[in-house]
């Protein structure tokens, strides 16, 4: 199975200090050319560790039910 790896980096201690991130629209546009069965994973520490994206791990900032 094909996997799309997003290399993540720690760049700030608050969301306000992140210099640039994609919008939902930009992410949708980027992903539209991939097969819908392509798995998406996050890469940490230059590929030393990985994590999956699941619905239960996605939340809006300020949402108290995220833990």
Portion of residues in beta strands equals 15-25%
H/E element order? EHEE
Low-confidence stretches: none
Strand order of the largest sheet: 1-2-3
3D shape: globular
Q: Report the average pLDDT across residues.
A: 91
Radius of gyration: 14 Å
| Largest sheet properties | 3 strands, mixed
User: What is the total tally of β strands?
Assistant: 3
Measured as a percent range, the helix fraction is 10-25%
The end-to-end distance, rounded to whole angstroms, is 30 Å
Structural class: alpha+beta
In short:
The chain is of the alpha+beta class. The protein has one helix at 24-31, and strands spanning 3-7, 39-44, 49-52.
Task: Draw up the topology in text.
Layout (H helix, E strand, L loop, with lengths): L2 E5 L16 H8 L7 E6 L4 E4 L15
Account of the protein in words:
- This protein is 12% helix and 22% strand.
- By secondary structure, the protein is of the alpha+beta class.
- The protein has a domain at 3-11 and 22-57.
- A three-stranded mixed sheet has the order 1-2-3, with no helix packed on it.
- β1 (3-7), α1 and β2 (39-44) form a beta-alpha-beta unit.
- The protein is globular.
- It starts with a strand and ends in a 15-residue tail after the last strand.
- The mean pLDDT is 91.
Which labels suit this protein?
1 helix, 67 residues, globular, 12% helix, alpha+beta, single chain, three-stranded mixed β-sheet
